[in-house]
Each structure stands twice: as structure tokens, then as C-alpha cells.
Design a protein that fits this description.
mainly alpha
């Protein structure tokens, strides 16, 4: 399968998204949910997920898509808020699963790497900021976001290194 590459249009879209989500009027932007067909798309996504699961072939894409389709079908802002929180949770778990696969891949370990017990939140926040800037997909995050992400990452690294506690996919702050 061929890897997707960025085109000029995709880069422009990334910049547009960054501008829109960081705009002062973003909180007042229309949700655009609960439109005709959203209920049917949510049912279709749920059916597809159930089918793939019954075959023993569930995929993260199907899980996140189902959560997102369910959220898109919501009209009530409070229910939409709860549904979007579920989308974020599913996406975060997918990200964790990807990180776990990446960390277990055959990759050479840098000889000058700092062990997790020597890392600080500031070190990780800087690394996250650097990676965000280099990715080309970075959104301008609110102040303190990298620090909060770094704190969670540091906690997960320390949990994974404790020899007396086996690391699981569910490790991390509750």
C-alpha cells in the first residue's frame, strides 16, 4: 500500500484548520451536527463496527469513526459535548496503541538517551513542542498544553519502567 503524501492543498488545509480552531470566534462557530442523514450514517458505522468485531477484525479506524458518526448525529449541545469527549478518548487510546507499537518496533536505541527517571516535564514539553513544529501538521496549542501532555507522558514512561508493575495498555492516569 502506498503511503499518503502531503500536497500543497493539504498543507493549506492544515493552516486553515489551525486558523479556524484558534480564531477568537471559534467558540461561537456552528457545530454542523444533527443534519439530515447523520442518524443513518451513525447506524451504518455502528453496524460496520459490530460486523468487523464479530469477524474478529475490529480496527481503530472503525472505533473512532463510529464514535465520530455518533457525535455528528447529536443535536443537543450537552449530548454532543459528551459524545465528543468519547471521540477524544477513543482517539487517545488509538494514539497510545500506536505509540506502544512504535516503541516495540525494532528501532535502534540511541546511546545518549536519557532514562525516563531522569526526564523532567520541561524536557518532554520541549520535545513535544519540537516534534509539533517539525511535523507540519501542528496546531497552535494553548499555553500549557505541551506541559500537560509532557506530564502525562512522563507518568506513563515511569509506570512502564517499574519492574514490579507490568505495563499494560491501560496504564496511565485515570
Amino acid at each position: 500500500m502506498e503511503q499518503a503524501t502531503n500536497t500543497g492543498a493539504e498543507i493549506d488545509t492544515t493552516k486553515l484548520i489551525a486558523e479556524l480552531v484558534n480564531a477568537p470566534q471559534a467558540a461561537r462557530m456552528a457545530d454542523g451536527t444533527g443534519t439530515p442523514g447523520d442518524d443513518a450514517r451513525a447506524r451504518c458505522a455502528r453496524t460496520s463496527l459490530q460486523t468487523m468485531s464479530s469477524r474478529g477484525e475490529p480496527a481503530w479506524r472503525d472505533i473512532v469513526w463510529t464514535q465520530l458518526a455518533n457525535a455528528f448525529a447529536e443535536k443537543d449541545p450537552a449530548r454532543l459535548h459528551a459524545a465528543m469527549a468519547q471521540v477524544v478518548e477513543a482517539a487517545n487510546r488509538w494514539i497510545d496503541a500506536l505509540a506502544q507499537r512504535i516503541s516495540t518496533a525494532d528501532q535502534p536505541t540511541p546511546t545518549t538517551a536519557t532514562s525516563p527517571d531522569e526526564l523532567t516535564t520541561a524536557d518532554l514539553a520541549q520535545a513535544l513542542d519540537d516534534a509539533r513544529e517539525e511535523s507540519g501538521y501542528a496546531l497552535d496549542l494553548s499555553p500549557g498544553c505541551a506541559e500537560a501532555m509532557a506530564e502525562r507522558l512522563l507518568e506513563r514512561l515511569l509506570v512502564c519502567r517499574r519492574p514490579s508493575i507490568p505495563a499494560t495498555a491501560d496504564d496511565g492516569p485515570a
